[in-house]
Amino acid sequence: MDRPKMIIGLVLLVLLVPGTADLPSAAAGRTVADRSTPDGSASEGSVSAGSVPDGSAPEGSAGSAPWGSRVRTFHGRAFDVCSAPSRDTMRRWRTSDYRAVGVYYAGRGRACRHQPALNRGWMRAVTGMGWRVLPVYVGSQAPCVSARHKRGVRIGRHPWRQGVREARDAVRRAGALGIQRHSPLYLDMEAYNYRKRGCARTTLSFVRAWDREVERRGYVPGFYSSAGSGVRHMEAARRAGVRDLPAVMWFARWHTKPHLYREPVLRRNAWHPQRRIHQYAGNVKERHGGRTLVIDRNLVRAPVARIG
Hints:
This protein is 26% helix and 21% strand. The protein is built from 6 helices and 8 strands, in the order H-E-H-E-H-E-H-E-H-E-H-E-E-E. Helix 4 crosses helix 5.
């Protein structure tokens, strides 16, 4: 590593790695108002990074090998919608080009908390129809979250402990819906001002703790955010060699053509292979099989849930 790169890496590491006080001693859903903006600054929605004693890992470690046989992946189109549609609507939508659906299944920050259709039977029914499922957990949000209506669910004073606690909730609620181990759980982190140092440290601490605990319990930690904020932040952390980052990156950049490896804020070797989802449009009305939904559109090449 030449001297300029070394200096940049050290600066990033100092800015991004959370304080040791939060480390363990053993060391959606969305409404229309929650949606992304044209520059990719979305409002809403492990494979560890190595094992180095100082907590760092080589660049590119947030995904650098194919998944094992127990992780199911999907390559194709997906839609996500605030409230899970009825079984009949999902059956009718089989006439569309979509073959996967994003489901906001839990989390204190979830906008559509009342989900009358969403239960274990729904999961089994839609997968029986041939749908793949992308489970999304909308937990606590960054202290500097942009959306006013998300400021009541901000990360508190102990981000690491809170991240662990919410990861356990994410796993427990996933299991109740029949989402099995080796499935991805995507943490939805709405747009925030990652340039604020304290906020960035708190948010990264929470995300890392959530990732580590989700992975420890046998699931795959994913991350959804806007390309211009949360995704940029995670990429900076990856380049700085931070461990316990998400294993899958779901980035929102609207008003562009769907793509997986041309996102400007991500290097091509990051979160590769089969570790990316691009949300390329949102708040779109579509009608299939006589049923209309307001959805976000996604291109997927990433893990999907195992339902049992």
